[in-house]
Design goal:
The chain is about 20% helix and about 30% strand. It has about 300 residues and is an alpha+beta fold.
């Protein structure tokens, strides 16, 4: 410390100033001053300031911890699957059991990529607005659905879209189904092939099938088309015992229908001149006036086709 009279430095254990002799009283609270006359903090003052500063830091840290506990959130997942239904708890949850999260906008899972979700977290009288970046991704492989075994007429183009459907986030993948290896439609016989469908995110769906190339008569070809449609609708040829060309004539173009093919005396297929094949149940067929007129006025062909050649 320094003498308050002459400014000379005095050792703490000294009772008086070595220069001017001023007695340092125990009751005095001398001010430390520099040789320029400015007051400087005493060691006693510094010893008092340090614990106060530490206490303030501790208090501030505790406040921050409590605030984060009350207003903090835990991120559960910042990536969600395309097309999924997302709830708040699937993305973030409050750290406090009393916390409430309210989204200010909705996540559009029909669009791939980054999206910003605005939300408010509330806890008692406290409330704060925040946002989180969410990425919508597509990791689900396309699903190819259809029969495991199909038959195609020799020389006719094998188009997987005629037999198989694809379920995926992307639409219209039926028209891009790849076949490996390629089916040789000019050679009678069976072959194992793999169908694959790839979506825009690079996910690939696979299905192993058997394709049998057969050489049929004209009537058998008509029956096969109907049976293939039957398989597409029912998933298999189970229960197919007989197939009959019910009506076949050059003048059969009424309402665009070229042929009627009956399967098992229960399901009737109309084969249209544009290639479409539409099934009718027996009850539906009875309700069709055009069918009534055809059955009454036109002689039916009645050509029976051996199902053993067409159905496994």
């Amino acid at each position: 410390m320094f003498c308050t009279k002459c400014g000379c430095e005095i050792k703490e254990e000294s009772a008086f100033c070595p220069k001017c002799g001023k007695v340092v009283s125990d009751t005095e609270n001398p001010q430390d001053v520099s040789i320029t006359g400015r007051k400087v903090p005493s060691k006693r003052t510094l010893r008092l300031f340090i614990p106060i500063a530490i206490l303030l830091v501790v208090v501030l840290t505790v406040v921050v911890i409590i605030y984060n506990a009350m207003m903090g959130v835990k991120v559960i997942n910042n990536k969600v699957e395309a097309g999924s239904i997302v709830q708040t708890k699937d993305i973030i949850i409050p750290r406090s059991s009393n916390g409430i999260i309210r989204f200010q906008n909705e996540l559009d899972t029909s669009k791939l990529g980054q999206q910003a979700l605005q939300y408010t977290i509330e806890n008692g009288i406290l409330s704060i607005n925040r946002h989180i970046e969410i990425e919508v991704i597509d990791t689900t492989a396309p699903v190819i659905s259809g029969p495991e075994n199909i038959k195609v007429q020799k020389g006719e183009l094998f188009n997987p879209a005629d037999f198989y459907s694809v379920t995926d986030f992307d639409d219209g993948l039926e028209n891009s189904i790849a076949v490996t290896p390629e089916v040789n439609i000019n050679v009678v016989g069976s072959s194992k092939v793999q169908l694959s469908a790839k979506d825009s995110s690079g996910n690939i769906g696979l299905l192993d099938i058997s394709v049998q190339v057969i050489d049929l008569t004209a009537d058998e070809q008509l029956a096969l088309k109907a049976i293939n449609k039957y398989v597409e609708n029912n998933g298999s040829t189970d229960g197919v015992a007989s197939t009959v060309i019910v009506y076949k004539t050059d003048a059969a173009g009424t309402n665009g229908v070229d042929y009627y093919v009956e399967i098992n005396s229960d399901v009737l297929y109309a084969i249209y001149d544009d290639g479409e094949i539409k099934p009718f149940t027996a009850k539906e067929a009875q309700s069709q006036l055009v069918l009534k007129l055809l059955f009454m006025a036109v002689e039916m062909d009645g050509t029976e086709v051996s199902s053993s050649k067409l159905v496994d």
